[in-house]
Amino acid sequence: MRIYFTFEPRPDLKDPLVAEFPEVDFVFENALSIEELQKADVLVTYGEDLDNDNIQYAKKLKWIFVASAGVEKMPAQAIIDRGIVVSNVRGIHKTPMAESILAHILAIKRALPWMYEQQKKSEWSKKAKQSELRDSTALILGPGAIGSEVGRLLQAFGVKTIGCNRTGKEAVYMDDMVSFDGLLDTLPKADIVISVLPKTIETTHLLKEAHFKAMKNNAIFMNFGRGNLVDENVLIQAIENGEIGHTVLDVFEEEPLAANHPLWTLPNVIVSPHVSSHSARYVERSLEIFKPSLEKWMKGERDLENVMDLSRGY
Hints:
CATH topology of the largest domain: Rossmann fold
Radius of gyration: 22 Å
Number of domains: 2
Keywords: NAD, Oxidoreductase
Number of strands: 12
Pfam family, one: 2-Hacid_dh
Number of helices: 10
Structural class: alpha/beta
Strand content: 15-25%
CATH class of the largest domain: Alpha Beta
Domain D-isomer specific 2-hydroxyacid dehydrogenase catalytic: 24-303
Order of helices and strands: EHEHEEHEHHEHEEHEHEHEEH
Helix content: 25-40%
Domain D-isomer specific 2-hydroxyacid dehydrogenase NAD-binding: 102-276
Protein name: 3-phosphoglycerate dehydrogenase
Shape: elongated
């Protein structure tokens, strides 16, 4: 069996992997090679290097392991047509992303950005507009692995959590649940609105003008899922009209964000360049999912962890 990685893990992660599976022919490169793709039985990728042009060369490919949660840049239909199994690392992002989200919330509540600016000016001032997180309400769009971890941390701070998904089905660490249909009626209750939704047809421009008008004008709006959630012109209008108090964005409709994009300079907006999931332990956690799945695959089993339904996008 030939397994082709289009990235190279650190030696302390790669060497144990190779030693644990001596019967596997591993190939590690830091870019996708057509020559290697033609020979691969299994492909391990971040998901951005495989496209409709090069997948035609992957004649032997039977399984793609995506070391990422999103697969929107992959040639979904071609993969479906070929019957290739796709699994990913859903769940490994929950710790760094939840910590990133909580860090931004606490920074805003305790006026840390304002303090940093005062320090740059060597100005001693106690006029910071600080508030408490306790006793607030957070609406979490997409209470899956990441959203539920956010909910767990927020509950520890005394925050009421409301989850929102397509069906309204219960999720852990959510005090209440609503469906997408109940979103508009729930938004006025939320002090913090956090989206960690995946990119699907249903989530594309899910939030519209009416949703921002329904939010508290001092609410914190955070998008850490995918940039398709809202038309950025709608979001900019809501910010300029004072319909929300603070905005924290880790994802955008077009990435990287253009240097002249208005979101860079609008007041009370924090731009995070899609780094909330980054961690020194990212590949380590990915391999913790890959190894058990590889053991199953080599035994002929196909009930791998995190098998994806590409027709749904997750």
